[in-house]
Amino acid sequence: MFSRILVANRGEIAVRVIRACREMGIETVAVYSDVDRHALHVRYADYAYRLGPAPASESYLNMEKIIEVARKSGAQAIHPGYGFLAENAEFAKRLEEEGIKLIGPSSEAMRVMGSKTLARQTVTKAGVPVIPGTLEPLATEEEVVETAREIGYPVMLKAAAGGGGKGMRLVRDESEILSALRMARSEAKSSFGDDSVYIEKYIEKPRHVEIQILADSHGNVVHLFERECSIQRRHQKVIEESPSPFIDDETRKRMGEVAVAAARAVNYENAGTVEFLVDADKNFYFLEMNTRLQVEHPVTEMVTGIDIVKEQIRIAAGEPLSFTQEQVRQVGHAIECRIYAEDPDRNFFPCPGLIERLRTPGGPGVRDDSGVFEGFEIPMHYDPMISKLIVWGKDRAEAIARMKRALSEYVITGVKTTIPFHIRVMNNRHFIEGDFDTNFIDKVFFKEEAERELPEPEVAMLAGAIERFRRELRESLRSKEISGEGIGSLWKYTYRPGFGKKF
Ligand code: MV4
To answer: How many other C-beta atoms are found inside a 10 Å radius of the C-beta of residue 232?
Structure first.
């Protein structure tokens, strides 16, 4: 087993990894940028090294500096967390050359899964259903028009090097396809430095369901069931849960088997996630494979009891998985809300700043994975996620009730947060019924909220009328008291909600 691990990340995920190491008796090396010198991950680690100034390119993305720190500090392995260098095949390659173990898959698995067309080719050979479409990038405009006709509209153009919705265009009619192609290509070029584009059939109202897998260096591959991740806003997940309220046992079993096959197709090692789109008829299609630990891994940990980060470390150290597929059970229900320093009333505009007060929720079934503390200043240079609030309940109804309770206990002042938004989603009838797809937040939730909002003149009128009624009541009660009449007809007010104690 390793005796010292470098954590090449910041924030809650660095803290998460350091906690696992501490419990395993492994020393940790934190790295930090100037604005993070007082951050929680620096405080919790055994050693800490400065990388450079705040910009990620000069700190958390600086491969050679991080390798130098690993050497100097005597770390035998590097945990990359998520984001930054986590899915960088070049970084994985450099570590292989340097003889430093990356707690993650091989650079080759990263390279294959990093290209959407290469991934589609590779998993197709292993019998994994992919979204109907091309397995190769498209060369000419004629080829694009012809292929789209064969597939049938609507279609999606996607960047071969892409992910996360960038370089992606929905095309409903042939008349739009060439302009969409130009836009997809230029977006792909500027985002990924590669303008290769391929075509897929468009899946209407899909759900995003992903399977967590673990693969050791001895050829054992298991899955830890699914996470439902359809609650997204502009391709950013905001709420995840496990199990998915939409997936039945039969589909769950088949998706698990297919995910394991996809992992085997690239000789995958360590923790990974196979993403699927699921259509209204429960047909599921491979979307992509994420070759890293994911933000939402805690919901899987809560329903399976498996510590995914500890398993990652054991796998990287060459140990075999300590359990079989049959021993993995999904118990109860877990939900995660990502709490961001963003203002939901200003279109989720980032709101970095000083956390003046902080009281985190607790009690039965509540987990708060956070990298902040009272007095911490959230830097503007990185992702503004403050914490992940995760709850477990015996069933989905208890998990929702518990999440509402936990959200209502949360106190964060100094910065605006997405907590009020989460409370509203937890009270939304579509969410409560599990009736949602990837369009829910942008197309259903905000639309319904806007419709429910009273037009402002009416709100003002009602507020004015209420205020006038209260004042008259107060004055009449006071004048009666003064005149010696007493409050007289108390019966009139006693049974009106809210009036009993106020006057
Ligand atoms: C799709 C799709 C429908 N049909 N592909 C968006 C991000 C990228 N990872 C894949 N995405 C989609 N690909 C086909 N053929 C719909 C989406 C999509 C989506 C997927 C997952 C989660 C949220 C989403 C929101 C909008 C669109």
So the answer is: 18
State the pLDDT confidence band at 458, using cuts at 50, 70 and 90.
Answer: confident
Token pair in block for residue 388 = 């992940």
Length of the chain: 503
Q: How far apart are CA 184 and CA 187, in angstroms?
A: 5
Is residue 489 packed enough to be buried (19+ CB in 10 Å), middle (13-18) or exposed (0-12)? Answer: exposed
Q: Which residue reads 């599990």 in tokens? A: 434
Token representation of residue 360: 């985190």
Q: The domain 132-201 is classified under which CATH number: 3.30.365.10, 3.30.1490.20, 2.60.120.620, 3.40.50.410?
A: 3.30.1490.20
Give the mean pLDDT of 245-253. Answer: 98
Residue 484 has pLDDT above 90, yes or no: no
Model pLDDT, residue 502: 46
> Which residues on adjacent β-strands are paired with residue 163?
166
Domain 342-453 CATH (choose: 3.30.470.20, 3.40.630.30, 3.10.180.10, 3.40.1190.20): 3.30.470.20
Report DSSP state, residue 99: T
> ω before 243 within 30° of 0 (cis)?
yes
Report helix, strand or coil for 26.
Answer: coil
- Measured from the Cα of 232, ligand 1's closest atom is 23
Measured between its terminal Cα atoms, the distance across the chain in Å is 70
CATH of 4-103, one of 3.30.70.1170, 3.40.630.30, 3.40.50.300, 3.40.50.20: 3.40.50.20
Express each pLDDT in 302-326 by its tens digit: 999 999 999 999 999 999 999 999 9
User: Measuring from atom 9 of ligand 1, which residue has the nearest CA?
Assistant: 164
Confidence of residue 281 (pLDDT cuts 50, 70, 90): very high
Q: Cα–Cα distances in Å, from 502 out to 55, 305, 344, 491?
A: 55, 50, 33, 14
Q: Once rounded to an integer, what is the mean pLDDT over residues 250-264?
A: 98
What are φ and ψ of residue 102, in 5° steps? -85, 130
**What phi, psi does 367 have (nearest 5°)?**
-130, 130
CB 104, CB 86: distance < 8 Å: yes
Residue 277 CA to ligand 1 center (angstroms) comes to: 7
Site residues for ligand 1, CB cut-off 6 Å = 131, 156, 163-165, 200-203, 206, 208, 232, 235, 277, 287, 438
The residue whose CA is least distant from atom 25 of ligand 1 is 438
Q: Is the preceding omega at residue 344 within 30 degrees of 0, hence cis?
A: no
